[in-house]
Design brief:
about 240 residues, binds zinc ion, 2 domains, four-stranded parallel sheet, TIM Barrel
Length: about 240
């Protein structure tokens, strides 16, 4: 602890992302040796480690991260520890297809890359919160921990039915009533007036130009939905 404080106190944090779960553990000591040679004093860990930390629903594999955190502390390198919630494991979409985003045409956005989560999905949010709670409980007091890195590059979008329900709640809070919404969106144009909240959907593919008030509010809503995801994890750590 003392060594780490001495190594980083009053100094600019210097380093970057470090994803050693992607290569053999035998090479970690060499990584550290090279980091010290380059005067690296900070690394970000765990950004894409969800599938490693939770190999199946509810399971936990923290051993490798324990060893990594200890290795960093022993060598005076601080850790920016990520919640790995930007990239759910394949089991999430496989077992809970409703967590997968739908694009503007209603097509599923599958796993196989990253960012494949619906920010409005209660199931995704519950799994993300549970893992964040366990990470915070296990490493919140670790001597290597310098700060938390919540999720990563929030940028997913979703046009699914769950998102539609969430969007309507957001619109009620923003506009109060349907009359105000119709006025704000100018729905008198092209016969777009809404008579019921259930008629309002995310701005999916339409026959011609879409209502700009509708699409602008959906962008604002999506930003707020991602902000909710962020705030939930921030509050936990
Ligand atoms: Zn969705």
């Amino acid at each position: 602890m003392a060594a780490l404080d001495d190594a980083t106190r009053g100094r600019v944090l210097f380093g970057g992302d470090y994803n050693p779960e992607q290569w053999p553990e035998e090479s970690w000591p060499q990584d550290v040796r090279l980091m010290k040679k380059a005067r690296v004093n900070s690394v970000t860990l765990g950004v894409f480690s969800w599938a490693r930390l939770e190999p199946r629903p509810g399971a936990r594999d923290f051993g490798w991260l324990d060893r990594l955190m200890d290795l960093m502390a022993e060598n005076g390198i601080g850790v920016v520890l990520a919640t790995p919630t930007a990239s759910p494991p394949p089991w999430m979409g496989s077992r809970h297809p409703e967590t997968l985003p739908r694009d503007e045409d209603g097509r599923t956005v599958w796993w196989g890359s990253r960012q494949q989560f619906c920010p409005s999905s209660p199931v995704y949010r519950a799994y993300a919160a549970a893992l964040t709670e366990d990470l915070a409980a296990r490493y919140g007091g670790h001597p290597a921990l310098r700060m938390w890195h919540i999720n990563n590059e929030y940028c997913t979008h979703c046009w699914c039915d769950e998102t539609a329900r969430h969007f309507r709640d957001w619109l009620r809070a923003r506009h109060g009533g349907l009359d105000a919404l119709n006025e704000s969106w100018g729905t008198a144009f092209w016969s777009q007036r809404y008579d019921s909240w259930d008629e309002i959907i995310p701005p999916r593919r339409a026959q011609y130009l879409r209502n700009p008030g509708h699409t602008l509010d959906f962008r604002r809503f999506t930003s707020d939905a991602l902000l909710e995801c962020y705030a939930a994890e921030r509050d936990i750590v």
